Amino acid sequence: MIGRVATMAGMAEPMDDSSEVTVRDAAARGDAHAQYRLALEHDNATGPARDAAAAAHWYSAAARQGHADAQLHLGLLYDTGDGVAQDAARAAHWYRASAGQGNADAQVNLGLMYLNGSGVPKNDGAALQCFRMAAMQSHPKGQFNLGALLYNGVADEPDLAEVYRWWTLAALQGHPLAQQNLSLVAAQLDHGQLARAQAGVAEFLQRQGQRE
């Protein structure tokens, strides 16, 4: 299984003195986007300039206003104990809030917490649902993890054709474990199953292309 998704959902544009003042003023007035941008500035800084506690403060301010990316990053800070006391239950709370707004990174992270029983009761079915939501948004880690659970028969008997579909989609995006394991699944499918699975991949890609 893949670990937490810790990549930034968005990097803040570098601020000059005047724009920094404007953003700080807007954040102080309660503008959620400005609060998130200010949090990113603190979080993405390098060396002594990085201030995880300040990042947590501004992520929290934006997260409480429903900012999905801020909720994801606040969850990550609680998950790792970066700038705040480590608290798996709070991490799960903020991942869930962000996942509910469709944030695929948060859906993957929440799925891992359900899978491992970290901050929430262990629930393989809930993990499967979270990974599926992320996979449907073309998230490669969601697609790989969904395939892994299906391969291990978490939902029911292993559906190798569906595993092949999700791992192919993840592999096409460069996911290394999907690329390594794809031939293992393909070898277990007969010609008809493989053809149907490949058709499912093509159909998914066509639907995604129509949405873009």
Task: Report on the architecture of this protein.
The protein is mainly alpha-helical and 212 residues long. The chain has a domain at 160-212. Helix content is 68%, strand content 0%. It is built from 11 helices and no strands. The chain has helices spanning 17-28, 32-44, 52-63, 68-80, 88-99, 104-116, 124-136, 140-151, 160-172, 176-186, 191-211. Helix 6 runs antiparallel to helix 7 (124-136). Mean pLDDT is 90; it is low at 6-12.
Order of helices and strands: HHHHHHHHHHH
Shape: elongated
Distance between the termini: 29 Å
Provide the low-confidence segments as ranges: 6-12
Q: Number of helix segments?
A: 11
Query: In percent, how much strand structure appears in the residues?
Result: under 5%
Q: Can you give keywords for this protein?
A:
single chain, 11 helices, mainly alpha, 212 residues
Itemize the secondary structure elements and their pairings:
Elements: H1 17-28, H2 32-44, H3 52-63, H4 68-80, H5 88-99, H6 104-116, H7 124-136, H8 140-151, H9 160-172, H10 176-186, H11 191-211
Helix pairs in contact: 1-2, 2-3, 3-4, 4-5, 5-6, 6-7, 7-8, 8-9, 9-10, 9-11
In short:
This protein has helices at 17-28, 32-44, 52-63, 68-80, 88-99, 104-116, 124-136, 140-151, 160-172, 176-186, 191-211. The protein is mainly α and 212 residues long.
